[in-house]
Design brief:
Blueprint (H helix, E strand, L loop, with lengths): L4 H37 L26 H31 L4
Length: 102
Amino acid sequence: MAIHLGDIMVKAIGLLGVMTTTVGVFAFGTMAVMNMFRTTHHRKEGVPLYPRLGSRFNLLFRPSQLTDRGLAARKKVLYATVGMVLCLVAELAIGLGTGVMK
């Protein structure tokens, strides 16, 4: 079986794409977690950090309990989560399309 230069280039470009999108997944994931903590820090006065259920991130679902900075951080959590999912989908599409992932 002969190895063609075109096959090697496709695999190399696919591997580069998979590695790049993997870095994107981790970067967006880190950004989402950091902004989750930032959101809980910028809650309104008198709002407990640990609500009844004990979950720290219930504030993400209650915008009435956040300050303006908390709402901005909440929006960044949404953007980072969407970016992470898009990078993951792109990683799978590039990997499966070029044959890097099987």
